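Q: Can someone sanity-check these two? First one:
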Amino acid sequence: MDLDFPLRKIIHVDMDAFYASVEQHDNPELKGKPIAVGGGSKRGVVSAASYEARKFGVKSAMSGYMAQRNCPDLIFVKPRFDRYKEVSYQIRSIFFEYTDLVEPLSLDEAYLDVTENKKGNPSATLIAKEIRQKILEKTGLTASAGISINKFIAKVASDFNKPNGQKTVNPEEVIQFLEDLDIRKFYGVGKVTAEKMYRLGIFTGKDLKQKSLEFLDEHFGKSGKYYYYVVRGIHHSTVKPHRIPKSVGAERTFFENLSSEIFMLEKLENIANELERRLQKSKIAGKTITLKIKYSDFTLQTRSKTLPYYIANKDLILETAKELLYQSELQNSVRLLGISLANLNTEKKKEEPEKESVSVQLKFDF
């Protein structure tokens, strides 16, 4: 294939069952046992599950009740986010030994651009191997990695040899790799989208590639263009050391369902206080406030309002959240409330427009 844009050497590092692995490392009695971080109460939600628990279908975002039903021997562990942050910073310090182009996605994963790196090592594959070994030596934890010419392919590749493995997709392998890929493996294709693609006869990257841009636009809106280009190996998004958030939010799950708006006002005030703290820490404000309501039957509803000015003050946030709460009748009792602020006052550089043609230097060393 011929790619006429500059090729980069991108590594996606993803820690293996991070929260659960930290708990098993710090408490050897938990090693080899099915554990879930969080989800310990009847209202709780699992934040992370060990690989031993995943064998029983236990996964993040699952209710504690469901997790326990799937795995009767499941051990629930209370989250320790300060400890996870501490370990995450240790891991990031290793990344910065190789490059300053590090884009954290969360505490347990990040992109690294090592096209030019501090070690002068031309092999991204060997760099990824070194990084994973250093993480193991420094933290006692394992990591997996994906290596390729852009962030999309590196992200997809990091899932292939989990846990404690890595996969490199060389430039000359990109097209075949993407054509053979199960559509469910495409980053950005969730369960609902995958089912829609199935109905349209799209099961693999090759199937997706056969669809025109007009067809994908018609059926998937703005995402259609994204699918059209990534399946051709085109993804120009660069590694951004300082990621700009699209929104900032806070939410709370309640031990007992709330059935009246009056009982929710105190909860909303606490959430607004937390949101204000996060906004002040990030030194940003926003115009669009969204109230998130999750009902006792797990259905989700959002209500939003865009103001003509930026706000970051808890009183203004709370005032708008109350207005949204009283906007219409509640459908059921409520188990979760959240407030988020979007349309933030941060400037983001426009990304380079997508190009239709690609060329690849097959001797580009990975």
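And here is the second, same format, sequence then tokens:
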Amino acid sequence: MATVVVVGVQWGDEGKGKVVDLLTGDAHCVVRFQGGNNAGHTLVVGGRKIILHLTPSGILHSDKVCMIGNGVVVDPGVLWHELDRLKEFGMEVTPDRLVVSAYAHVIMPYHRLLDAAREAKKGASKIGTTGRGIGPCYEDKAARSGIRVHHLLDERVFRERLDRVLEEKNFMFRHYFGQEPLDADAVAEEYLEYGRKLAPFVGDVSARLQEAVESGRNVLFEGAQGTHLDIDHGTYPFVTSSNTVAGSACCGAGIGPTRIDHVLGILKAYTTRVGAGPFPTELTDPTGERIRECGAEFGSTTGRPRRCGWLDLCVVKDSARLNGLTSLAITKLDVLTGLPTLKVAVGYRCDGRDLDGLPQEVDRVERCEPVYEEFPGWEEDIRGVRRLEDLPQNAKNYLRALEDFVGLPLSIISVGPGREETIVLSDPFA
């Protein structure tokens, strides 16, 4: 039995979905523990592309139990749409395969409206949120005025909470944003119907996890976004609204820290970022454009083109500390094929000083200039490689430098988007 937490170690979009899908073969349970449908996992299975935003990636395996923990904020409309889409792909999701925590908070229509209205009002200083209502939902959770999944199952309690919250939200819509207020009856009708549909899936995720662990079953925890988008430890305020680090698995699913056995950090062979915020190794030249096109770097949730740049090992090393990483998995190594020279950041120069890690102040990060080490690239097609020793020597040198700098071993190397296009060096569940 083992429990494994999978987290991104950059600014999200590291390819966690593929790695989770790969590891799910050895897991009994797969658990989402934070974030919402602002995250998207793109999976390629049997040549078919499937994008999931809320449902854990493990749902593609018919013999696995998937769970959405209390740390996730759930848009029930999005979740139900995903379940319908999976049915179209021939994957019937039943309550014995998906459990939604009764304690998870619900994204309401006013959360999405607030998200969009605030971004519009900020103008040029906007953060670049996905507009899905994630932040406002977490705000209400912290303010103790949120609506949780179990509230949808009790009409009286739900209406009382909804009427109380809408009194405040509609005042803001009218008098601050100059928008029409929401109709409480229409909202109640829509969301109580979601409650009736989701009722069979609602349960106690923490208790189910305890049962799985005590039964000696493997559990896989699936994080969303990346370490440097963490609300506390990321490049604030250009961050997401939840804790994305591995420790959040305990709070967001209801499991004790002593139950976690392995923390696997996922990184791309280069770096990407979506939205605003500092990005020291960003490439705004033809090389950056080439990486974007070859890597299909467009948001699975928003479709926005991702900003692309060289691999930043300082960012990865910071993530190793923040997450207590056990090992690393690198994705999209094949995207670098054909580049004559590769660069990796191993330090920064800021205000005349040499730094070996990201400063804590975001304005200083924006002034950082990366210090690079250069490596010769490779021309060989590596998508068919299944053993480390069969990679081009220059690719092996690139990977070895990564391991040496961060001080952690690689356990997985992804050489293409397909499930089978992977080199597994060690089993995180072992």
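A (reply): Looked at the second one. The mean pLDDT is 93. DSSP finds twelve helices and 20 strands in the chain.
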